[in-house]
């Protein structure tokens, strides 16, 4: 029963101890990482391999960066980056095959401040993701699109609508594009498991957000119909957010038959 995790590590070198600890304790079969903030040359690949994982990496110096690691069969790369913008040099998308599964690790643009060029880039990027997602659905395979989407899909996915109302993560245009993915036929695994909301995956470092449980849900694992048919559970490993020098995101997971 594969357990597939998405985890924005917020700097893989700064969080290496926490990441290895998580791999050691939870032993996920597949883990999608975001915000590596490291060039390919300086990634701590040796330490990850020593923990029993092999990966496909797509680094970038200082910011962005995504990877997919697996404990059993090594991942085979299918695509890095999204089509539709030859000028886009950001490392935000990597897609692999592991056994019969197709898995993508996604780090969607934040989009703040909005309105402005960063928000425009976010929306265009989401359109490109939707194009790729449509192509993946046409393959009729079990596919998992896992990552930090930087979208709060519903009002009950945040501790405070008022606090987030101006944020790019919660704008109608961001939400509408997220819903576009769902209407293609993707299943939001965490939402399916917790339909009433109130489940967070991110707590800011500022203003005692973790201590107040003032979080929101932006890390999502979307499942193609064939993957959704195999889903047996989904959740957030929340306690890892409370550890010393933790990422501001908690590992978020789905299990498939």
UniProtKB/TrEMBL annotation:
Statement: the UniProt record of this protein carries the keyword Iron-sulfur: no
Family listed: Belongs to the DNA repair enzymes AP/ExoA family.
UniProt source species: Sphingomonas rustica
One Gene Ontology term of the molecular function aspect: double-stranded DNA 3'-5' DNA exonuclease activity
Protein origin, superkingdom: Bacteria
A matching Pfam family: Exo_endo_phos
EC identifiers of the protein: 3.1.11.2
Enzyme kind, highest EC tier: hydrolase
Cofactor requirement: Mg(2+)
InterPro entries in the record: AP_endonuc_1, AP_endonuclease_F1_BS, Endo/exonu/phosph_ase_sf, Endo/exonuclease/phosphatase, ExoIII-like
UniProt name for this protein: Exodeoxyribonuclease III
